[in-house]
Amino acid sequence: MTVPTGRRERKKAVTRQKIADVALQLFLERGYDAVGIRDVAAEADVAVTTLFSHFASKEALVFEQDDDFQQRLARAVTDRAPHEPLIPALRREIQALVRHCTAGNAAPIWRMIDASPALRKYEESMKSRHAESLATAIAAHPDLSRTTTACRAIARFVIDAHSLAREAADPKAAVDEIFRMIEAAWEVTHPSANPTGTAAP
Question: What is the Cα–Cα distance from 142 to 140, expressed in whole angstroms?
Protein backbone atom coordinates (compact mmCIF):
# COMPACT_ATOMS: atom_id res chain seq x y z
CA MET A 1 0.00 0.00 0.00
CA THR A 2 1.28 3.47 -0.85
CA VAL A 3 2.16 5.38 2.32
CA PRO A 4 0.82 8.96 2.18
CA THR A 5 3.08 11.85 3.11
CA GLY A 6 1.95 14.98 4.90
CA ARG A 7 -0.45 15.34 7.82
CA ARG A 8 -3.51 16.07 5.69
CA GLU A 9 -2.87 13.09 3.40
CA ARG A 10 -2.31 10.78 6.37
CA LYS A 11 -5.55 11.93 7.97
CA LYS A 12 -7.45 11.30 4.73
CA ALA A 13 -5.90 7.85 4.45
CA VAL A 14 -6.94 6.98 8.00
CA THR A 15 -10.51 8.11 7.33
CA ARG A 16 -10.63 6.16 4.08
CA GLN A 17 -9.38 2.98 5.73
CA LYS A 18 -11.85 3.37 8.59
CA ILE A 19 -14.75 3.66 6.16
CA ALA A 20 -13.59 0.61 4.20
CA ASP A 21 -13.10 -1.48 7.35
CA VAL A 22 -16.53 -0.54 8.71
CA ALA A 23 -18.20 -1.25 5.38
CA LEU A 24 -16.62 -4.68 5.05
CA GLN A 25 -17.60 -5.60 8.60
CA LEU A 26 -21.22 -4.59 7.97
CA PHE A 27 -21.34 -6.39 4.61
CA LEU A 28 -20.05 -9.62 6.15
CA GLU A 29 -22.33 -9.38 9.19
CA ARG A 30 -25.58 -8.39 7.47
CA GLY A 31 -25.05 -9.26 3.81
CA TYR A 32 -23.92 -6.96 1.03
CA ASP A 33 -27.40 -6.18 -0.33
CA ALA A 34 -28.82 -5.49 3.15
CA VAL A 35 -26.39 -2.65 3.87
CA GLY A 36 -26.78 0.80 2.32
CA ILE A 37 -24.35 3.67 1.92
CA ARG A 38 -26.08 5.58 4.72
CA ASP A 39 -25.64 2.60 7.04
CA VAL A 40 -21.90 2.59 6.37
CA ALA A 41 -21.56 6.35 6.81
CA ALA A 42 -23.47 6.28 10.09
CA GLU A 43 -21.44 3.39 11.49
CA ALA A 44 -18.17 5.03 10.42
CA ASP A 45 -19.37 8.37 11.88
CA VAL A 46 -18.83 10.31 8.65
CA ALA A 47 -21.12 12.23 6.33
CA VAL A 48 -22.36 10.51 3.19
CA THR A 49 -20.56 13.21 1.17
CA THR A 50 -17.32 12.31 2.97
CA LEU A 51 -17.81 8.66 2.10
CA PHE A 52 -18.32 9.51 -1.56
CA SER A 53 -15.22 11.73 -1.56
CA HIS A 54 -13.22 8.55 -0.88
CA PHE A 55 -15.28 5.92 -2.72
CA ALA A 56 -17.17 6.43 -5.96
CA SER A 57 -19.67 3.63 -5.36
CA LYS A 58 -20.84 1.03 -2.89
CA GLU A 59 -18.96 -1.66 -4.85
CA ALA A 60 -15.71 0.30 -4.49
CA LEU A 61 -15.93 -0.12 -0.71
CA VAL A 62 -15.28 -3.84 -1.14
CA PHE A 63 -12.36 -3.34 -3.53
CA GLU A 64 -10.78 -0.54 -1.51
CA GLN A 65 -7.22 -1.38 -2.66
CA ASP A 66 -8.17 -1.24 -6.33
CA ASP A 67 -6.02 1.80 -7.17
CA ASP A 68 -3.10 0.56 -5.09
CA PHE A 69 -3.05 -2.80 -6.90
CA GLN A 70 -3.19 -1.04 -10.27
CA GLN A 71 -0.25 1.21 -9.35
CA ARG A 72 1.78 -1.70 -8.00
CA LEU A 73 1.47 -3.58 -11.27
CA ALA A 74 2.53 -0.53 -13.29
CA ARG A 75 5.49 0.03 -10.97
CA ALA A 76 6.54 -3.60 -11.42
CA VAL A 77 7.22 -2.57 -15.02
CA THR A 78 8.64 0.92 -14.55
CA ASP A 79 10.57 0.53 -11.29
CA ARG A 80 12.18 -2.87 -11.75
CA ALA A 81 15.97 -3.12 -11.43
CA PRO A 82 18.08 -2.31 -14.51
CA HIS A 83 18.27 -5.29 -16.86
CA GLU A 84 15.72 -7.26 -14.79
CA PRO A 85 13.46 -9.16 -17.20
CA LEU A 86 9.84 -8.06 -17.25
CA ILE A 87 8.05 -11.34 -16.62
CA PRO A 88 9.87 -12.31 -13.39
CA ALA A 89 9.16 -8.82 -12.04
CA LEU A 90 5.46 -9.18 -12.82
CA ARG A 91 5.39 -12.71 -11.41
CA ARG A 92 6.85 -11.47 -8.13
CA GLU A 93 4.20 -8.73 -7.86
CA ILE A 94 1.31 -11.06 -8.73
CA GLN A 95 2.62 -13.56 -6.18
CA ALA A 96 2.55 -10.83 -3.52
CA LEU A 97 -0.97 -9.73 -4.52
CA VAL A 98 -2.23 -13.31 -4.45
CA ARG A 99 -0.76 -13.80 -0.98
CA HIS A 100 -2.60 -10.68 0.14
CA CYS A 101 -5.90 -11.84 -1.36
CA THR A 102 -5.72 -15.35 0.12
CA ALA A 103 -4.40 -14.48 3.59
CA GLY A 104 -6.29 -14.56 6.86
CA ASN A 105 -10.07 -14.40 6.57
CA ALA A 106 -10.24 -13.61 2.86
CA ALA A 107 -12.47 -16.56 1.96
CA PRO A 108 -15.75 -15.03 3.25
CA ILE A 109 -15.04 -11.85 1.30
CA TRP A 110 -14.61 -13.74 -1.96
CA ARG A 111 -17.75 -15.78 -1.28
CA MET A 112 -19.62 -12.50 -0.83
CA ILE A 113 -18.20 -11.18 -4.10
CA ASP A 114 -19.05 -14.38 -5.99
CA ALA A 115 -22.63 -14.24 -4.67
CA SER A 116 -23.25 -10.65 -5.79
CA PRO A 117 -23.84 -9.84 -9.48
CA ALA A 118 -23.03 -6.18 -8.78
CA LEU A 119 -19.68 -7.03 -7.19
CA ARG A 120 -18.80 -9.53 -9.93
CA LYS A 121 -19.54 -6.89 -12.56
CA TYR A 122 -17.40 -4.35 -10.71
CA GLU A 123 -14.57 -6.88 -10.41
CA GLU A 124 -14.62 -7.54 -14.17
CA SER A 125 -14.52 -3.80 -14.86
CA MET A 126 -11.66 -3.42 -12.41
CA LYS A 127 -9.69 -6.23 -14.06
CA SER A 128 -10.15 -4.58 -17.47
CA ARG A 129 -8.83 -1.28 -16.11
CA HIS A 130 -5.86 -3.00 -14.52
CA ALA A 131 -5.05 -4.81 -17.75
CA GLU A 132 -5.21 -1.62 -19.83
CA SER A 133 -3.06 0.25 -17.30
CA LEU A 134 -0.49 -2.54 -17.28
CA ALA A 135 -0.49 -2.75 -21.08
CA THR A 136 0.12 1.00 -21.31
CA ALA A 137 3.07 0.75 -18.89
CA ILE A 138 4.61 -2.10 -20.88
CA ALA A 139 4.12 -0.38 -24.24
CA ALA A 140 5.60 2.89 -22.95
CA HIS A 141 8.78 1.34 -21.58
CA PRO A 142 11.73 2.02 -23.92
CA ASP A 143 13.39 -1.37 -23.23
CA LEU A 144 10.35 -3.45 -24.14
CA SER A 145 9.95 -3.63 -27.88
CA ARG A 146 6.56 -5.21 -28.56
CA THR A 147 3.46 -4.42 -30.58
CA THR A 148 0.43 -2.86 -28.91
CA THR A 149 -1.46 -6.12 -29.37
CA ALA A 150 1.30 -8.11 -27.69
CA CYS A 151 1.40 -5.72 -24.73
CA ARG A 152 -2.36 -5.88 -24.26
CA ALA A 153 -2.43 -9.68 -24.55
CA ILE A 154 0.35 -10.20 -22.02
CA ALA A 155 -1.25 -7.71 -19.63
CA ARG A 156 -4.55 -9.60 -19.76
CA PHE A 157 -2.76 -12.89 -19.15
CA VAL A 158 -1.08 -11.37 -16.08
CA ILE A 159 -4.36 -10.05 -14.65
CA ASP A 160 -6.08 -13.39 -15.27
CA ALA A 161 -3.17 -15.13 -13.52
CA HIS A 162 -4.13 -13.34 -10.33
CA SER A 163 -7.74 -14.56 -10.49
CA LEU A 164 -6.83 -18.13 -11.44
CA ALA A 165 -4.15 -18.46 -8.77
CA ARG A 166 -6.40 -16.99 -6.08
CA GLU A 167 -8.93 -19.75 -6.74
CA ALA A 168 -6.36 -22.57 -6.85
CA ALA A 169 -5.72 -25.07 -4.07
CA ASP A 170 -2.04 -24.06 -4.10
CA PRO A 171 -1.94 -20.38 -5.16
CA LYS A 172 1.87 -20.11 -5.23
CA ALA A 173 2.28 -23.19 -7.43
CA ALA A 174 -0.49 -21.87 -9.68
CA VAL A 175 1.29 -18.53 -10.14
CA ASP A 176 4.53 -20.32 -11.04
CA GLU A 177 2.75 -22.59 -13.52
CA ILE A 178 0.83 -19.78 -15.20
CA PHE A 179 3.86 -17.53 -15.46
CA ARG A 180 5.87 -20.23 -17.22
CA MET A 181 3.24 -20.02 -19.95
CA ILE A 182 3.20 -16.22 -19.87
CA GLU A 183 6.99 -16.11 -20.21
CA ALA A 184 6.85 -18.43 -23.22
CA ALA A 185 4.18 -16.21 -24.80
CA TRP A 186 6.25 -13.08 -24.10
CA GLU A 187 9.32 -14.58 -25.78
CA VAL A 188 7.27 -15.52 -28.85
CA THR A 189 6.21 -11.87 -29.23
CA HIS A 190 9.81 -10.63 -29.42
CA PRO A 191 10.59 -9.12 -32.85
CA SER A 192 13.49 -11.57 -33.26
CA ALA A 193 11.02 -14.45 -33.03
CA ASN A 194 9.32 -13.24 -36.22
CA PRO A 195 10.74 -15.12 -39.24
CA THR A 196 10.91 -11.88 -41.19
CA GLY A 197 12.87 -10.22 -38.40
CA THR A 198 10.29 -7.48 -37.95
CA ALA A 199 7.46 -6.95 -35.55
CA ALA A 200 3.97 -7.40 -36.86
CA PRO A 201 2.17 -4.12 -37.61
Answer: 6
What ranges in 55-116 are assigned the alpha helix state H?
58-62, 66-78, 86-102, 106-115
| Rounded Cα distance, 7 and 113, in Å | 34
- Residues 6 or more apart whose CB falls under 8 angstroms from that of 6 comprise none
Q: What angle do CA 68, 133, 100 make, to 5 degrees?
A: 35
Determine the Cα–Cα distance for residues 193 and 127; give it in Å rounded to an integer: 29
How far apart CA 127 and CA 63 sit, in angstroms, is: 11
- Residue 199: pLDDT band (50, 70, 90) is very low
Supply the pTM of this predicted model. Answer: 0.84
Q: Are 88 and 182 in contact (CB under 8 A)?
A: no
